[in-house]
Amino acid sequence: MKCNASLLQALVQQSIDPGDDAEAIAGHLETCVRCQQTLTELGGDKQWWNDARDWLSIAPDDVMPSAQCCPLPPIDLSFLETPTHPEMLGRIGRYEVESVLGRGGMGVVLRAYDSDLHRSVAIKVLAPEWAASIPARQRFAREAQAAASVAHENVIPIYNVAADATLPYLVMRYVPGMTLQRWVTTHGPPDVASILRIAGQLAEGLAAAHRRGLVHRDIKPGNVMVGENIDRIWLTDFGLARAADSVTLTQTGIIAGTPNYMSPEQARGENVDHQSDLFSLGCLLYFLATGRPPFESENTLAVLHRIVTDDAQPLAMHRQDLPPAFTRLVHRLLHRQRSKRPADCEAVISELGVAQMQLDAGRTARVPFTKRTRRLLWAGGLVACIGLIVAMSPLQTLDPNRDSNGDDGRRISAGNRDGNRQTRPQAIQVSPYINQAASQIENAAWLDSRQLQIRIEKVDALVNRMKQAEPTDAVPGMQLSNQQWRNEINRLEHLIRLSQQR
C-alpha cells in the first residue's frame, strides 16, 4: 500500500469502511512514520492515531458506544479541493496542503506549498462553524489587516488573504519550529542568555505593532513561534489586535484574550491600551523563566480574580540565576497599576540591556523582601552578632596574660591589680552597650531605617574587634575551632553587607 492522505482522512472521519483492505492498511500504518504523523495531525492528538488503528483491527460490533476515552473530534478538511498529488491532503486556492500544523478555537492552521512562488507557507482557515458569523469574519479580516501592517523581522508576515472565500483564510510565512509554549513544556525553561534574547526580540516585535497604533491583546507563549535552537522568535496571531482607540469589544462587555496572560484591566472587561500588552509580556517572561504562568488557579474565574487582586510570587524564589534588572523589570511589568509599569516597549528594551550587562558581569538577583521582612532580617542578624559578641566579651577578662595588642605577659601579670583595672574598664565599655542593644533589639522590627543603620554600624565595629580575638575553650559556649570562628565572622559580615544593601 502507498501513502494516501485522502484515504487516511476518510478513515479518521469514519466515512468509509476499510473492508477487505483493513489488514493491509493496518500493517502499513504500523511501519509508516509519515502516515502515523498524518493521522496524528488529522486527529488532533495521539489518541486519535490509536483509535484509528484499533478501528481498523476490530469488527464493527465490537465498538463500544460508551467508550470512556473522549478525544478531540477529528479535523474536518472536507472544504479542501481534490489534491493534485495523492500524498497531499487537498488543495485550497493555488496552495497544495501538505499537513495540519495545529488548530485553535476559531480555525485550523495548515502547512501548504505555493506552486507559483515555490515556497512553503502556513494557511490559517476560519472554521466552518465560525464562517457564518459576521463578527468572526470581521475579526478574521482584522487579523490579516493588523498583521500585514506590521513589518518587522520578529512578526510573521502575511502573504495573502481571502476574506471573501466561503471559508476565509490568510496565508503567512511558514516558520519551522514550534510555539514557545510547547518548547518550554518539552525542554523546560531555557538558560538566562536565551531568556534575555527572546525577551528582547519579543519587545522589539511588540514595539513595531505599538508604533502602528495596534494593541495585540493576546500576548502568550502559544502565540510566539520559536526556531529549533530558540535563537529567533516570531510574534503571531493578531486575531484580537485592535487599534488603540477602538473600544468596540469592551463596550459590549466581552472579555477577549487568554486568562493566564490577561492584564487586570482586560480581566475586568475595561478598555485596554499598550500597557495591557506590557502586562501580558510580563506574564510571558515569568512563564519563560519558571515554566509556569504567574497566576494559576483551579478555574478561569479564580485566575481572573488572582490577576486583579494578587501579586505574583517573587521571581527570585523560583530562580536565583537571573540578573536583578530582569527580575525587577518582570515585576514592574506585572504591576496592577498601569502607571507603575514601564512606559513603553522601548523602556523594556533598555532595561533588558541593563540585565544583559549584569549577566555579563555575573550579577544575579536575590529574593526580595517586604519592608517588615527586611527589618526582621536585620533584627535577626543583629541578634546573631550580639549573641556571639556577648559570648566573646569575657575574653577581655578571663585571659589576663593577653592585652589588646596581643603582647603576652608583658603589661599584665596575674597578681597585678593595676593591670586588672586596665582590663576591666574595656569589658565595662563593651558590656553596657551589648546589654542595652540586646534589650532594644526586641523592638528592632519597628525601628526606622536610620536607627537600624546606626545599630548596624556599631555592631559592624564590634565584629571588627572580634577579628582580633581567638576562640577559646575557657569561655562557656564557645567550643569553636579557628576555622569555625572565622566562618562565623564571615557569615556575620555577609549579614551586615546584606542589611546595608537593603
Automatic annotation (TrEMBL):
It is an enzyme of class 2 (transferase). One of its GO terms (molecular function) is protein serine/threonine kinase activity. The keyword rRNA-binding does not apply. Residues 397-425 are annotated as: Disordered. It holds the Pfam family Pkinase. InterPro entries: Kinase-like_dom_sf, Prot_kinase_dom, Protein_kinase_ATP_BS, Ser/Thr_kinase_AS. Keywords: ATP-binding, Kinase, Nucleotide-binding, Serine/threonine-protein kinase, Transferase. ATP binds at K124. Residues 400-411 have a biased composition (Basic and acidic residues). SUPFAM superfamilies: Protein kinase-like (PK-like). Residues 95-359 form the Protein kinase domain. It comes from the Bacteria. Its EC number is 2.7.11.1. This is non-specific serine/threonine protein kinase. The gene is pknB_19.
